[in-house]
Amino acid sequence: MSTASPPVARPGLTLFAVCAAVLVLPASLTGTSVALPSIAADLHATLAPTQWVVNAYNLTFATFMLALGALADIVGRKRMFGTGVAIFALTSLASTFAGDIYLLDALRGLSGIGAAAVLTAGSAMIADVYQGAALGRAFGIFGTAAGAGLALGPSTSGLLIGAFGWRSVFFSHLLIMVVVLAVVPLLRESRNPAASKVDWLGTATFTAGLFVFTLAIVEGPQRGWLDVLVLVLLAAAVLLLRLFVGVERRQRQPMFDLALFRQPRFVALCLLPVVAAFGFVSLAVLLPQYFIGVDGVTSQGAGLRMLLLTVPVLAVPMIGAWLAAKLLGTRTVLVLSLLCMAVGTAWLASVLGPGVGVAAIALPLLLVGAGMGLNAGILDGVAISSVEPERAGMAAGMFNTMRLAGEAVAIAIMGALLVTFTQARLRGGPAEATSELASQVVQGDLGAAASRVADADRAGFAGFLADGYTGAFQTTLWLIAGICVVGSVVIAVLLPGHKPAPEVAPEPVGEPA
């Protein structure tokens, strides 16, 4: 690919290319979750390797962001963006034809690396071609595109799976990235003259620490939480993350400036997407498997139900931005977004059950989605503008790393707890309540789980499994609601209260086009 820079900035074309790519990245997370039961059945996979189809992507996405963002400043943002798009496209193509679950896991990990390159370089490209108030608006569109990807992933994937099978999900991602790749040569190149090297030691310790922690969380329900390997993995995660902190403190130009965490406003803005990952993203991943397993709906039907959760993420961001600018202020809107998720998940916990009608779950899901939508249109711009303009790039990298690491951890923790709670609920039944049985149930494969008993007892046992799974899911939902309530209180305390001030424009970032 040529790295020659067009003389014209082309801000509109840059924003289109970045937002089109960013639309795919979260959709590849939430959309793939709908495909997991089909993938597991087709590739004859158990729960743990099937979970890594999601975990591998999110984990590498989160852990490579800082290093690739620093590398983009050195080699060029356009070059890194194009490389990331190419990696994502090629791995999506290979995933379309994967015939082994472990190969698919590996390909998804590589996709996450490509996604990290796209997101970090793309956000820096936007900052290069926009300035002043236009920069704030551009990042608002950027954040809305990311929210739209989260929202559209489950429904579009469900429709694709119903029509063409699970492989079409990855093929659809390929098609969009091919369009983006065609636009890349028309974009302007930019670099950071002050950038000199990548913090590989910090990258290694952070990546390894997050990886072994996620592995421990995934393996916990399978092996038992007091298993030696699980405990060793948890201890290794703590050690590696402590080493990461030590490495960053000794760097003259750290990729993860821990000093920013002394600013309560920045801490609050980094914490919010982590809490939202529990309140929204974990539901987007786990709920489709519940609908498929307990209610017996198809992947297409599950995707259509998920529209109740995801459509508000498309419709509400503009309302949230208006409320923050004109009426309530940023802090109130962000706190309100988490409270909506808390009320919605608690409400869903009280009505969820086998055979429950769509009407009963509609309002709770709409409320959770509205909570996510309230912050989707303002959070990125507020986070990046919360620090000095010269540190905006680093702040963007840290913010997105916290968001994606939070999503990886939230999905792993909630999935692991759901298996643990389900196993506890299945004790005393006609079959031994093993972790393998609980995993089959959580994976949505109640038919295979029910086959453990005699044919005459199968219908009754399937009902017992559905009730146990439902009780475990309700407990998980109550826990998510509690996390959202606590998070809303912490963020209300940390964020300063400002009156709406729409006339104040963001400070310029980057050179004028």
Describe what you observe in this structure:
The chain is an all-alpha fold and 513 residues long. The protein folds into 2 domains: 415 residues, MFS general substrate transporter like domains (Growth Hormone, Chain: A, Up-down Bundle), CATH 1.20.1250.20; 56 residues. 77% of the residues lie in helices and 0% in strands. It is built from 19 helices and no strands. The longest helix has 37 residues. The radius of gyration is 22 Å and the shape is globular. The C terminus is likely disordered.
Instruction: Assign an overall shape.
Output: globular
Find the structural class using helix and strand composition.
Answer: mainly alpha
What is the CA-based Rg, rounded?
Answer: 22 Å
Low-confidence stretches: 499-513
Number of helices: 19
- CATH topology group of the largest domain: Growth Hormone, Chain: A
Helix content: over 70%
Cα end-to-end separation: 23 Å
What's the structural domain tally?
A: 2
